[in-house]
Amino acid sequence: MGIINNPKTDPNKILPMTYLWARQHYKDGVANNWVPEEISMQKDVEQWKSDKVLSESEKRLIIWNLGFFSTAESLTANNIVLAVYSHVTNPECRQYLLRQAFEEAIHTDTFIYCCDTLGLDPDEIYTMYTRIPSIKKKDDFVVELTKTVFDPAFVTEGTENIRKFVHDLVGYYVIMEGIYFYAGFAMMLALKRQNKMVGIGEQFEFIMRDESLHLAFGCDLINTIVKENPEVWTEAFKKEIIELIMKSVELEKDYARDACPEGLLGINSEQFCDYVEYITDRRLERIGLPKQFGTENPFPWMSQSTDLTKEKNFFETRVTEYQQGGNLDWD
User: Closest Cα partner for 89 from 20, 155, 171?
Assistant: First the structure.
């Protein structure tokens, strides 16, 4: 039996395992366990209330990122629980998807914690996707890209339907989690490097470490489906996927320019755009497609936390044994 198209409601016969990479992703996710309340926000509150630490542009950038991520995380959770889990029928992959769903709940809780701690207006934060054009366009693009799997009548039987499923997985894992999150990550870590809003910055670091696993699992899932069903991976389909990814890059660049128009102490919005191009090339290569930009990494300091070269030895430099999130030591 393959990774899809097994009985959907059989008992979870997880042994013997077929896809050991899925089991490893699950174990790595467990090792990265954390909750937002373990991270102190006291200094963040003091900086947020002070009129001497953060500029209005920096406060705006923080609010925009909280606004985007608060709704984006709920979109990703919906994809897992309502769509992907139903169609990925391999037991060990489902075990990982359950873990990922838990992590998405933690991420959603993180933004609740940040809003409550800083005293932000939840109506402002949680409705930004309806009011800010560059955020709305990103969300609408992903919703449109992944609508096939939400059709109650959709099945993954037959070449064309498997191709549609791979298309939606690319939209969810590669575009949403692999591209759309990363300009925001870079912005928040750029602030943290300046010793500003360090608590939120640490929480974004934990989220990034989760997301790197989500991305790795998603790419392994896509590559396995393609390997088991090579007839779906035609040159025409590859071209379609590349075009979708390139469109998503333009939307992410628009968001980067809107969220950070004035830059952050020597870092300008075009550098964030360059970073989007750089990580997009990495995502393309990860699913067997050619690079499109050849852009160098403008933020080498991001590599330790986010680069795909860290996928295989990522946890060797992160957590040496299972610990609660508040006690993690970064080597």
Answer: 155
With beta carbons less than 8 A apart as the criterion, state whether 126 and 64 touch. Answer: no
pLDDT digits (tens, 9 = 90+) for 55-108: 999 999 999 999 999 988 888 888 898 889 999 999 999 999 999 999 999 999
**Cα dihedral 123, 98, 205, 259 sign:** negative
**Angle at which helices 198-228 and 56-79 cross, to 10°:** 30
Q: Name the helix (H) or strand (E) containing 66.
A: helix 56-79
Buried b (16+ CB within 10 A) or exposed e, 10-29: eeeeeeeeebebbbbbbebb
Answer CATH for 55-319 from 3.40.50.300, 1.10.10.10, 3.90.440.10, 1.10.620.20? 1.10.620.20
Query: Amino acid identity, residue 141?
Result: F
Catalytic residues: 113
User: Pick from 29, 15, 153, 180: which is nearest to 87 by CA?
Assistant: 153
Residue with token string 């299972």: 322
The average confidence (pLDDT) of the chain is 88
Distance in angstroms between the alpha carbons of the first and the last residue of the chain = 41
Indicate whether this model's pTM tops 0.85.
Answer: yes
Beta bridge partners of 264: 267
Residue 36 and residue 327 in contact, taking contact as beta carbons nearer than 8 Å: no
Q: Is the preceding omega at residue 16 within 30 degrees of 0, hence cis?
A: yes
